[in-house]
Amino acid sequence: MFSGRFDQLVQALRILPSVGPKSAQRMALHLIMKNKEGALGLAHALNEATSYIHECAVCHSLTENEVCDICLSNDRDEQLLCVVESPADVMAIEQSGSFKGKYHVLGGHLSPLDGIGPEEIGIPYLIQRLSDGLVTEVILATNATVEGQATAHYLVEAAKHLPVNMTRIAQGVPQGGELEYVDSHTLSQAVHNRMRMK
Amino acid sequence: MFSGRFDQLVQALRILPSVGPKSAQRMALHLIMKNKEGALGLAHALNEATSYIHECAVCHSLTENEVCDICLSNDRDEQLLCVVESPADVMAIEQSGSFKGKYHVLGGHLSPLDGIGPEEIGIPYLIQRLSDGLVTEVILATNATVEGQATAHYLVEAAKHLPVNMTRIAQGVPQGGELEYVDSHTLSQAVHNRMRMK
Ligand SMILES: [Zn+2]
Ligand SMILES: [Zn+2]
């Protein structure tokens, strides 16, 4: 429609998650008709971000430097290490404001059928990180999926020989969750893991 | 989060219509973690589109050339001219496959309170376009809003002296519309504009 470059822009916008053909068209028209300056700014930000952002050498989260701000921070508890699957999880936990330790990003979860074993998600490197005795508690914050659970269990086994406590983030009914809409697996977990109030 | 350039990318993505802070974050992470090549392609497409796409000199729709493909086409009926508010409307009508004439894009609608009068939406130029006697029917396809209706009525007045038929796209219950969910203004229009079947 309109021109080859218009169609190319619509196609290029389709790489964004949950952007279908209709919203890509709407976005392209909006940018060209109403916000060319914003479009140029977005192009610049995309070029900059792809050039400069990469994995932190220590925790494997994202940074523009050799080592990320969280790893370098003196204000965070080095004895607490939170293990997550991806940088998106680091972001979610940071935004919850519930954690003041350090992180370790696996970059995935165990998935033997896809050929993703302990080496592929850097478990030997994590065990090595734990071997200096600085960390006293590892919080396993992999996803509450079958793969995330399996990965957490594997990590407990792999760290058996180390003098470190390992905990798993709680699973249960989400805040505001109405029981009739919560799936039965979650509900049965929530009953099983019930906590004493009195 | 993560780095300045990450935050800048999240901010830049917010200019896209209906992208809030959460989805901008999700998009930024997706691009950096999963599709750097796509991100670079999008940056390129944005730069190209903003540089090369502009208004058609004849119909004021969008094109990369002096005059758009629809205006130049010999396969379209030059006697039929469809007047719309924006290039998005040209796209919607083209995609409906219901029209084989030419277009005229106003670039807005009359809105006296915002200082948008006939000059601002190029009505004198449209009247001039109609003056060569080539067009025999003008289809008024401005939006079915108060402003779109007012603009259509104004155009009928402005073209009173010209030997040209003017029609308005039909208003009524949309395809698949269940009456109980259709607003009462639309319903009353639909009853008023009822069509004889037998
Ligand atoms: Zn780090
Ligand atoms: Zn044109």
UniProtKB/TrEMBL annotation, chains A, B:
GO terms for biological process: DNA recombination; DNA repair. Keywords: DNA damage, DNA recombination, DNA repair, Metal-binding, Zinc, Zinc-finger. The keyword rRNA-binding does not apply. Residues 79-174 form the Toprim domain. A zinc finger (C4-type) spans 56-71. GO terms for molecular function: DNA binding; zinc ion binding. It holds the Pfam family RecR_ZnF. May play a role in DNA repair. It seems to be involved in an RecBC-independent recombinational process of DNA repair. It may act with RecF and RecO. Belongs to the RecR family. HAMAP family: RecR. This is Recombination protein RecR. The gene is recR.
